[in-house]
Amino acid sequence: MAQHPLVQRLLDVKFDTKRFVALAAHGGKNFPDAEGRKFFADHFDVTIQASILYMVVVFGTKWFMRNRQPFQLTVPLNIWNFLLAAFSIAGAIKMTPEFFGTITNKGLVASYCKVFDFTKGENGYWVWLFMASKLFELADTVFLVLRKRPLMFLHWYHHILTMIYAWFSHPLTPGFNRYGIYLNFVVHAFMYSYYFLRSMKIRVPGAIAQAITSLQILQFIISCAVLAHLGYLMHFTNANCDFDPSVFKFAVFMDTTYLALFINFFLQSYVFRGGKDKYKADPQKKKKDQ
Fold first, then answer.
1. Where do the TM regions start and end (predicted)?
2. Which of 75, 98, 108, 117 has the fewest CB atoms below 10 angstroms from its CB?
């Protein structure tokens, strides 16, 4: 019996590990941007396959753990949080000169209208690493369910959609991706550093968690504002921007839903349900979405 073409396409997905490792190991000022973008275009189906596998593993593991004691996973979790914190800090540092240099030299509007040299050289290498990292960050949720921490819709929805958007948008390289990538690096630098300290059993003031959630909300307020103005420019002024309609629509849907969900998370965690006093009473609930 013949399989549906879409099913066959997903089953036939192959990940070119050798090609991936060569790009990841390249680095430097001569990073092959065109080849890096082509890698994601050629492997986009991997994100759909990974999303399906992710859902099966996460919810299957959650069901498997329902009557079992949680795993501590202290050492693996320490290592994982340290690696992601270090990666995010390095990415934020590496991309800061390009981000603010573009705003200063080209203007605020041009910084999200045009790509310029955003994906070139060493900066392009870190953009590529950022996109690739969204596949590997799915492992966050495995730690969560094995430790029997609360699994929120926001957590797994955010992981899946960000990965799919990253691999879909990078081959088309819209100018507004400069904001999403840089802001996410900065927020994750703080967030994973916080997770690392917590996993090391280092006491961190409860206000820090609230501040990080506030940063996440600010990130999506800025992203939504950028997209709103860009939409106005493209549809009412015929501006000449590096712009792809399909990526733009995807970004608008993604960022507006993230903004709504993170605001809801903030309100439920810190306003309606007693804020950090609730977390003192139930420390397990302190582990929130990234």
1. 46-65, 77-95, 125-146, 153-173, 179-197, 217-235, 247-267
2. 75
Kind and range of the H or E run holding 98: helix 74-106
Of the chain, the percentage scoring pLDDT greater than 70 comes to 89
CB 267 within 8 A of CB 199: no
CB 145 within 8 A of CB 78: no
Contact 189, 266 (CB under 8 A): no
Which pLDDT tens digit goes with each residue over 7-36? 556 666 788 999 999 999 988 789 999 999
Q: Which pLDDT value is given to residue 125?
A: 97
Q: Which among 259, 270, 106 is positioned nearest to 180, based on CA atoms?
A: 259
State in Å, rounded, how far the first CA of the chain is from the last one: 43
Cβ count near 111 (within 10 Å): 24
pLDDT for 289: 41
Return the residue matching tokens 């036939």. 12
d(CA 17, CA 83): 21
Q: What average pLDDT does the chain have?
A: 90
Q: What letter would DSSP give residue 147?
A: T
Neighbours of 246 (CB within 10 A): 11
* Residues 267 and 139: beta-carbon distance below 8 Å: no
Cite the DSSP H helix spans in 107-170: 108-113, 121-136, 139-146, 153-169
